[in-house]
Amino acid sequence: MEMIKVDHVSYSYQTKYCTIEALKSVTCTFEEGKMYAIMGASGSGKSTLLSLLAGLDLPKSGDIYVEGESTRALNRDRYRRETAAVVYQSFNLFPLLTAQENVTFPMRLRGIKKKEADENAKRLIEKVGLSEKTRHQFPKMMSGGEQQRVAIARALASDGKIILADEPTGNLDSENEKNIVNLLKELAHLGNYTVIVITHNPEVAMEVDIIYRIKDGELLKEENYDYNK
Amino acid sequence: MIIINSIKQMFRTPIKMILFLILFSLSAMLVALGGNLWNCSQENQRRFSDIFSTIGTVEQRSTNMNREEIWDAGLQTYYYKNIAEYQSIKDIGVLAFDGAGYLSGPERRPYYAAYVPDYKIMDDGTGRTNNALVEASPVEDCIPAGPVKMRLEKVLYSYYPFNMPYFYYCDHNNPNPEMLYADKTYIINMGEALPHGWFPGTNNTDGYEYIPFRGIYTSQTDDKGTLIENQLPNLSIEEVTENFYQTEHGQMWLALVEESNMLNHTVPVTPTNDINLIMSFFTEDSYLSEGKGFSQEEYQSGDRVCLIPRAFARRNHLSVQDTICLPLRYANYAHSASIGMGFGPLNAEGEAYSTFDNGTYKIIGIYDLSPGASKNSGYALADNEIIIPAASVKNSDQANIACFGPLKGYTTSFQIPNGTIDEFMTIWNQTGNPDLEINFYDKGYSKLEAGLLNMKKMSFVLLGAGIMTAVLILFFFCNMLITKQKRRTAIERSLGLSKSQCMTSLLTAILFIAVMGSLMGSIAGYLLTNKAVESMETIHKFDTRYSDGNTVAELAEKEGEMVLISSEASIKITILSGCSIVVFGILIAAISMNQNLKREPLALLSGREETK
Predict the structure, then answer these.
(1) B388 located within any domain
(2) Band of pLDDT at residue B400, cut at 50, 70 and 90
(3) Minimum distance, in Å, between the CA of residue B486 and any CA atom of chain A
């Protein structure tokens, strides 16, 4: 079932010196229960596309539909809170909150009681392979990999149907990378989530159902892989 | 959750928090200090205005001084006395001009003579020179150019018992006295005087001699000061012929006897529209020691209430709430009661003045004289002088003006607002009345005002500096806490927090620090103000005994004669300045915050500065 439809989406922004055309009439779809990879060179527009999918801004032209409803019409705060969870390349953790508090944050925002949120957070942190000790550390005390896993745990905690991840395994060792990819795959295939990852890593790309490749803001090609191969 | 997280995050940056708390406290303290000092200076100015008053007295300058020759029979020579002459007598109306801005007056006070036969006006045993109206004959024909022996025939009036068979008489100030015949009887109005050849410091062994006292004459004028035409002979000695007392002159002599008797039971009554205008009260020579002063209502409605001197009250067992009947007989516009005896005793008809206004007055206050108060000037209050509201005199005194003269400082005064003397004089000088001299008395308010203005300027600078510091601190803080917290806002927005939730998240921390900082700073500002005011108290001590309606008890509460003129820091101002800082801080934070929230989370996250 089609979860997200990207329909001739263009996005540009003005800097002090020039206008950057980040996306040029991109059209594609994302279905539930599948894992997608968006690949492309740096500055090709893949992070911009991910951000638009996350409802962090609106396209300059074209539309993005989520379950048939345009993001222009959506309550985007609610959409980000309840539907789309994002794992950022730069993690975007609250530096003054512990790992546990970071993970708890989206749950508490959704109105889950503190005790339940704490238990869930503990479970999620364990699930992404972090130690008990790490749970109480602040982001600056953690390695990049640990921070990345906290960010993933936070995304999982938001319990949205869409998981958007920007280089989610960029800072992980191969074992953790594998675990995280498997976790995301499970969410897509068993949990019926729509998982979209940006990656440069062919090994990660190998694991997804569909790959979109972007170059200079244009969606060039769609490739389908059989992940069972 | 948002609020708890916000405060949690704030406490995890303790140095930043403490720094901001200190800066916030500092600005709150400066604003509270400046605000309180400003308020103190305003308050002091108000209090000074209440305590101090500026009185102007008006005196007409003489146009000429006339030298009058007076014969002294004792020294057998003339002595000279300067008599001021006035081209015309200025009316008090000249003081009514645009821009005068009087708080009170101007008023020209006469004093009235009230005949109160039921009251004692002098203590027993109090000495005074005697005067008497007698019939007497010389022992032999003589010219009274020096003391001549007279045989007493009849006493018509004497203040003291006059029972000696003979006395000495001298027409002392007359260089050409008329012959007196031993076979004739004369009526004489005379007063006791020291004998010839007596010099101060020597014993008087010869007894007193008697010299002519004021005789049959009048100084009655109309209300413009013009002497009323009359036929009074201006005599102090006259031959008593047969049926003399049935003659016109004889009737006048009998009227003089009646007047002399009444004078012994006469008290001066001063009507006023404002007790503050009476210089004796202004100079603190007199003060209310019991009861209260006149209220504005009493002045305006002319209630029959009065203030009496302590000695008169004691002598007659009068106290506050008692009543006294005051039949007013004549008015003297030339002098104050303390010096006002040099006028004709009879009216232009040669009769004793009859009562023109009679009323029963309730005593509402008793005044005392300060120790060392001057008694020898026109500004002093006379013995037994009773003060009443001017409007309480219901009938006109126009037909009973015993004496009229130019405006004098002790009869004419007004009150203007403190600190407006220069302004007043500038306008006054344009009215073209150079023959009127105005003297101001403000108890040093003009000098004090300069100090007050300095204090006000200083507090203004402090307040300005406080506000400036507060603004700078708040902008600095907003930049540090909000603009630089852009990333936090971006993360919160990306996680689905609404704009208002983001606002709450950041503002809670700021509010917490702002409230704490303002509280600490305001308390510090309050305490500092009190310290500052306390240090200034030593130089701001003023004598405030004079103030309308103050009784002795109230004065005692004011630390005896002195009262400290200073204010305490106001809790209201302190709270207000603290709250202003909080509100201002939150406002600036909210505005800064709003700039961030206007941007899409994507732009915030990427950190790029988009232009339109």
Answers:
(1) no
(2) very high
(3) 12
Q: What is the pLDDT of residue A15?
A: 77
Average pLDDT of chain B is 83
Q: What is the mean pLDDT of residues B421-437?
A: 88
**Contact at 8 Å (CB) between B212 and B178?**
no
Nearest residue in chain B measured CA to CA from A79: B496
pLDDT digits (tens, 9 = 90+) for A34-57: 999 999 888 888 888 999 999 989
ipTM score of the complex? 0.87
Residue A13 and residue B490: Cβ atoms within 8 Å? no
> Which fold does the domain A35-50+75-224 belong to in CATH?
Rossmann fold (3.40.50)
Q: What is the mean pLDDT of residues B87-96?
A: 87
Chain A interface residues (partner B, CB cutoff 8 A): 13-16, 48, 51-52, 54, 56-58, 77-82, 86, 88, 92-94, 96-97, 101, 105-106, 108-109, 114, 138, 158
Q: Is A224 helix (H, G, I), strand (E, B) or coil?
A: strand
Structural domain span for residue B502? 2-52+446-606
Of B13, B496, B608, the CB nearest to A78: B496
What count of Cα atoms within 13 Å lies in the side-chain half-sphere of residue B588? 20
Quote the minimal CA–CA distance from A154 to chain B in Å.
10
Per residue in B454-474, pLDDT tens?
777 877 887 788 788 778 877
Number of domains forming the structure of chain B = 1
Establish if B434 belongs to a structural domain.
Answer: no
Contacts of B490 in chain A (CB under 8 A): 92
How would you write B322-384 as a 3-class SS string? CEEEEEEEEEECCCCCCCCCCCCCECCCCCCCCCCEEEEEEEEEEEEECCCCCCCCCCCCCCC
- Shortest Cα distance, chain B CAs vs residue A91, angstroms: 10
Domains of chain A: which residue ranges?
35-50+75-224
**Mean pLDDT along residues B58-72:** 89
* Rounded Cα distance, B54 and B421, in Å: 8
Q: Does residue B555 belong to any structural domain of this protein?
A: yes
- Whole-prediction pTM: 0.59
* Residue B13 lies inside a defined structural domain of this protein: yes
Residues of B in contact with A106 (CB under 8 A): 495-496
Whole-number Å distance between alpha carbons of A13 and B162 = 125
